[in-house]
Design a protein that fits this description.
Elements: H1 2-7, H2 15-26, H3 39-58, H4 60-64, H5 73-98, H6 104-112, H7 130-150, H8 156-184, H9 188-207, H10 219-224, H11 232-250, E1 260-262, E2 267-269, H12 275-285, H13 289-302, H14 304-324
Antiparallel strand pairs: 1-2
Helix pairs in contact: 3-5, 5-8, 7-8, 7-9, 7-11
Bound molecules: Phenylacetyl coenzyme A.
Residues 47-48, 51-52, 55-56, 59, 86, 117, 119-120, 135, 139-140, 143, 146, 207-211, 216-219, 222, 228, 232, 282 line the site of Phenylacetyl coenzyme A (FAQ).
Length: 325
């Protein structure tokens, strides 16, 4: 079904309908699920919302890794709440994608077979407790930078899901920064752990915004349709501008000697991430890709009995309802 949807792109792009649709987008109207939309618009949304949902679900794994090892009861409760929020975000997003005619099962199968992607960032390991700080600070920080503009995206269910998600992401970012503050102001060993986490997560966080604008295949069309509100490089620059002073406040060093305030552009100069590494990671060759998919595959198989039970119950209810009518 996912493959069929991809193939059916441009099957109904009648020029008059397309022009009327674009006029609605340009006027800032929201598009709702039952309204006419070009196949390419629907396909792009399924791809982006589905990828986003998968990122939230797979994104539970690196932090879930530390729930049993959180240093205090309070930290454990906070981390648990954050990871549960991520599951919730995945569910809102799967629901938003379902309004476009694809089921959650189909999306999950596309993830497990490698047809669909999830964010590159979750293919990096979380090696120390300081990584919980770096993930909250940098990964959620990058997610917010990307998602705040998406609250104004043209597809109604996606925009509405983003409003709630962004509120929760702010708490996630704050809790990460709070961990970093404790570590950076702790013992020299703790500060070194915080610096090491920043060193390892800096470039992967910059990669979250996608390839540089010249290599972004979808940006132009997605921005015309207001599925994306900014280019990848614009958001990456905003993220760097926000994060460098936060690192200074922590007394930590961004692992890039090229980071320097540029008065003329009103932003920081910085080095590009290693794009070869990025493309390898999204092709499936990152440090944890196999482990992440294996964990999702196992969860899918372990949950089969429950899904079967729910379906059997729903079928029984339907039969009872038909008999009563
Ligand atoms: N990872 O043409 P573009 C979170 C792919 S936040 C993997 O520029 P596009 C919260 C892209 O799909 C993370 N693949 O693509 C959290 C395309 O390949 P395709 C999720 C990437 O779509 C925090 C190709 O490269 N957020 O989970 C990545 O216009 C902490 C060409 O790229 C979202 O998904 C990447 N980083 O722009 C959870 C936000 N970047 O599909 C737990 C919504 C690019 O043709 C813990 N998504 N690719 O095979 C977006 O805004 C966009 O989809 C971008 C990419 C900006 C990610």
């Amino acid at each position: 079904m996912y493959a069929q949807m991809v193939k059916s792109e441009a099957s109904n792009d009648d020029p008059a309908l397309l022009a009327a649709f674009q006029a609605r987008i340009d006027a800032g109207e929201k598009i709702e699920p039952k309204e006419w939309m070009p196949e390419g618009y629907r396909k792009t949304l399924i791809r982006q919302i589905g990828q986003h949902a998968h990122s939230e679900i797979v994104g539970q794994l690196p932090e879930g890794n530390w729930i049993t090892r959180a240093p205090t009861l309070e930290r454990k409760a906070i981390l648990l709440a954050k990871v549960q929020d991520e599951a919730g975000h995945g569910l809102y997003l799967y629901c938003a994608a379902e309004t476009l005619g694809v089921s959650r099962d189909e999306l999950t199968e596309a993830l497990l077979s490698g047809k669909m992607k999830y964010s590159s960032i979750f293919n990096y390991p979380t090696l120390t407790w300081a990584d919980m700080g770096a993930v909250g600070w940098l990964v959620d920080g990058a997610a917010i930078m990307n998602q705040v503009p998406l609250q104004r995206t043209s597809f109604g269910p996606y925009a509405r899901a983003m409003v709630r998600i962004c509120k929760e992401e702010s708490f996630h970012q704050r809790q990460g920064y709070d961990i970093m503050m404790k570590m950076a102001r702790g013992t020299p060993e703790q500060k070194a752990m915080a610096q090491d986490a920043l060193n390892r997560f800096w470039y992967p966080s910059l990669m979250m915004f996608g390839p540089s604008d010249k290599d972004s295949v979808h940006s132009a069309q997605s921005m015309a349709w207001k599925i994306k509100m900014n280019t990848n490089d614009e958001l990456r620059q905003k993220f760097v501008d926000q994060t460098v002073p936060q690192a200074e406040y922590l007394g930590l060093t961004i692992p890039d000697p090229a980071v320097k305030w540029n008065e003329e552009k009103g932003g920081y100069d910085f080095s590009e991430p290693d794009w070869t590494e990025f493309f390898e990671v999204i092709k499936g060759n990152g440090p944890c890709n196999a482990e992440r998919i294996e964990a999702r595959q196992k969860a899918w198989e372990d949950g089969a009995w429950f899904r079967d039970g729910l379906m059997a119950h729903a079928a029984k209810q339907r039969t009872a309802q038909v008999a009563a009518e």
